[in-house]
Amino acid sequence: MGNNVAKVYYQEDCDISKLYGKTIAVIGYGSQGHAHALNAKESLGDNARVIIGLYEGSKSWAKAEAQGFEVFTAAEAAKQADIIMILINDEKQAQMYKESIEPNLKPGNMLMFAHGFNIHFGCIKPPADVDVTMIAPKGPGHTVRSEYQAGKGVPCLIAVEQDATGQAWDIALAYGLAIGGARAGVLETTFRTETETDLFGEQAVLCGGVCALMQAGFETLCEAGYDPRNAYFECIHEMKLIVDLIYQSGFAGMRYSISNTAEYGDYITGPKIITEDTKNAMRKVLKDIQDGTFAKDFLLDMSDAGSQVHFKAMRKLAAEHPSEKVGEEIRKLYSWSDEDKLINN
């Protein structure tokens, strides 16, 4: 891997006119889909056409139309498009590609992704005469949209897996500018690196690691006889305060903002919790991602044959954790907090 210093591209490195006269089909109109489509449409105006591809009967169909888009089936959208950005769930992409996109690809088209999963693990194998690229915003769709509207952007990753036209970099960079990413910076990567690091980050740290850490702290206090509400405040609720400080000014800035007592405890206790054993477990997690074990298990569970049995059981178990019940009560105390509403829409 080495210490490859990847190049970062900004607005002045991108030429949005590379998209002029083209039809861009955004497949999917969920969190990322609506953000990419709306941002690109506003950036390009009448210079290019942005259309949406969905499955028949999709709940998003009327929503996309109401927001001013022409909506087609994925197959029809692919037929009309020069650039096809696939923004549906990883586990649904291969079948949709096979049925709707592959038969409608023309030489010189560009196939785009926001995550490398299906290309890297070989679930989608594009023909040799199309460009295959990635623009992956490093933030959820609603942030990609709100930052763009505020005149800013969410940093993106860019990768070119296949450059059939000789224009792949330039067109992908133009797309990165169109959705607002180049305002913040577009970082060069590869499909392999993006896929492996993204999966690892989610599993070992951001979702798997952090949730398990907070729940273990909550359980430890409850088992010792403390009020679960206290435990929730101290181990779960306050996580946002710390993460926000790190986001704004790194670990040093966070440590500057907390008390000396907290900072001292941080230094002496962190290494007792995250030990060499934890690190070895992380190495194993990374190896399972790199050798395809995770992808195989995930796709099998998500397939019709697997019926998501394991996934649904894990989701149900997680929802029954005592911290969820306590958290629900605590969050009601915050009249200003809209966090819970995320689940209802």
First-to-last CA distance: 42 Å
**How many individual helices?**
17
Arrangement of strands in the largest sheet: 1-9-8-7-6-5-2-3-4
What is the N-to-C succession of helices and strands? Answer: EEHEHEHEHEHEHEHHEHHHHHHHHH
Rounded to an integer in angstroms, the radius of gyration calculated over CA atoms is: 22 Å
- Alpha-beta content class: alpha/beta
The amount of beta strand, in percent, is: 5-15%
- Overall body shape: globular
Helix proportion: 55-70%
Q: What low-confidence regions span 5 or more consecutive residues with pLDDT below 50?
A: none
Could you walk me through the main structural features you see in this protein, from its secondary elements to its overall organization?
The chain has 345 residues and is an alpha/beta fold. The protein has helices at 31-44, 60-66, 74-80, 90-101, 117-120, 141-149, 168-178, 181-184, 191-206, 208-223, 228-237, 239-257, 260-273, 276-290, 293-302, 309-319, 322-332; strands at residues 8-9, 23-27, 49-54, 71-73, 83-86, 110-113, 131-137, 156-162, 186-188. A nine-stranded mixed sheet has the order 1-9-8-7-6-5-2-3-4. α4 links the parallel β5 and β6. α9 packs antiparallel against α14.
Structural key phrases:
17 helices; 9 strands; single chain; 345 residues; nine-stranded mixed sheet; globular; alpha/beta
Summarize the structure in short.
By secondary structure, the chain is an alpha/beta fold. 55% of the residues lie in helices and 12% in strands. Helix 5 links the parallel strand 6 (110-113) and strand 7.
Secondary-structure blueprint:
Blueprint: E1 8-9, E2 23-27, H1 31-44, E3 49-54, H2 60-66, E4 71-73, H3 74-80, E5 83-86, H4 90-101, E6 110-113, H5 117-120, E7 131-137, H6 141-149, E8 156-162, H7 168-178, H8 181-184, E9 186-188, H9 191-206, H10 208-223, H11 228-237, H12 239-257, H13 260-273, H14 276-290, H15 293-302, H16 309-319, H17 322-332
Helix pairs in contact: 1-6, 3-4, 9-10, 9-14, 10-11, 11-17
